[in-house]
């Protein structure tokens, strides 16, 4: 029985000398489909002075209010020019509202 098994294995090896592995099993398949490193945000065409007026730095103090749920938010539109946010707290940006005392940080 061992002799027949050996002949069978030899026959299979001769019929398929270079078995091509699927790409996910090929240890030589590294970096295929990989994008070259790049900067996702870059200066637009033209001088720095031209693009400076098109940017808005968001750092600073911002008004903030945390609602229990989206449905409990006020129906007043904060995007209105005459919106009154004087009762809202202030948070520093950049930061995270949980780290400024508005909720308990959740670490998972």
TrEMBL record:
Signal peptide: none
Catalytic reaction(s) noted: Hydrolysis of terminal non-reducing beta-D-galactose residues in beta-D-galactosides
One Gene Ontology CC term in the entry: beta-galactosidase complex
Source domain of life: Eukaryota
Hydrolase in keyword set: yes
Gene Ontology terms for molecular function: beta-galactosidase activity
Hydrolase as UniProt keyword: yes
The EC number(s) this enzyme carries: 3.2.1.23
Membrane-spanning intervals of the chain: none
BP GO annotations: lactose catabolic process
Enzyme class per UniProt: hydrolase
UniProt keyword list: Glycosidase, Hydrolase
PANTHER family: BETA-GALACTOSIDASE
The protein's name in its UniProt record: beta-galactosidase
């Amino acid at each position: 029985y061992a002799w027949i098994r050996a002949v069978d294995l030899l026959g299979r090896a001769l019929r398929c000398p270079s078995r091509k592995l699927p790409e996910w099993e090929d240890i030589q398949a590294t970096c295929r489909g990989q994008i070259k490193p790049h900067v996702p945000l870059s200066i637009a065409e033209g001088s720095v002075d031209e693009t400076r007026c098109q940017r808005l730095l968001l750092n600073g103090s911002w008004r903030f209010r945390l609602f229990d749920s989206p449905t409990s938010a006020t129906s007043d539109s904060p995007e209105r020019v005459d919106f009154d946010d004087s009762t809202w707290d202030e948070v520093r940006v950049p930061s995270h509202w949980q780290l400024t005392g508005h909720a308990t940080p959740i670490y998972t």
